[in-house]
Amino acid sequence: MQDYAKTVLSQYANSPRLLSILEGWNQAFDPASLIDLWYQRVWNLGTAQGYGLDVWGRIVGVSRVLKISSGKNFGFSEANDLTEEGFNSAPFYSGSSVTSNYRLSDDGFRQLIYAKALANITDGSVFSINAILMLLFGNQGNAYVKDNGDMTMTYVFDFVPTDVQVSIIQNSGVLPRPAGVGVGYQIKSAST
Predict the structure, then answer these.
(1) Beta-carbon count within 10 A of 185 CB
(2) Residue 95: left (phi > 0), alpha (psi -120 to 50), or beta?
(3) Among positive and negative, which fits the CA dihedral 13, 17, 22, 26?
(4) CA distances from 144 to 77, 134, 138, 141, 186 (A)
(5) CA-CA distance, 108 to 62, in Å (whole number)?
């Protein structure tokens, strides 16, 4: 409480014992430090940690745990792979894949939350989608979206993404898919 002395009745205003008890209580119950700590660890997305990021993840609709495919498959569009593997380089897609779960670090999850928040409010334009890609992958190489002019677009990645990044691209739902537009992926292979 900022000025608790104004709440003391006038007949007790000069009682040193009562005022010292009230001063002690005021210091013990002052929530200012807890409010500052809560703001830093939960409410401020730039400094949030652990539980605070989990709360933000629920708000924007992403999970800290991603499913990562354990291997590459050769197949058609139902294989949902992002590789340009040819014959004799990967097994055929069997209809199911073995997955493992990966828990993102605080920094990785914060980046995913920012990207999902942007995706939630995007207008679907090439400019805004490119801003999301720069946020996610800007420090690793060129990542951009290309409008093919035939109601399709292609996400282009000029670097070799990790398995976690491929999972973010495929499974997280962060990359926008405008209504009525087909989406393809072009990823630089490890051999080039």
Answers:
(1) 17
(2) left
(3) positive
(4) 21, 8, 10, 10, 10
(5) 12
Q: Which two tokens stand for residue 156?
A: 């282009």
Handedness of CA 178, 179, 181, 182 (dihedral sign): positive
Tell me the two tokens of residue 29. Answer: 């119950």
pLDDT, averaged per 10 consecutive residues of the chain (192 residues), comes to 73 84 80 86 93 94 80 55 52 59 86 88 89 85 90 90 78 83 81 50
Cα–Cα dist 126/150, whole Å: 14
3-state helix, strand, coil in the chain (%, to 5): 45, 15, 40
Tokens 């593997």 sit on residue: 85
Q: Which helix (H) or strand (E) holds 133?
A: helix 126-137
Amino acid identity of residue 168, one-letter, is I
DSSP of 147-187, one letter per residue?
E-SSSEEEEEESS---HHHHHHHHHS--S---TT-EEEEEE
- CA dist., res. 66 & res. 170, Å (int): 10
The whole-number pLDDT of residue 189 equals 67
Q: What CA–CA distances, in Å, run from 37 to 41, 59, 86? A: 6, 20, 54
Asked whether 48 and 56 are in contact (CB, 8 A), the reply is: yes
CA dist 14 and 132 (Å) reads 62
Q: For residues 93 and 78, is the Cβ–Cβ distance under 8 A?
A: yes
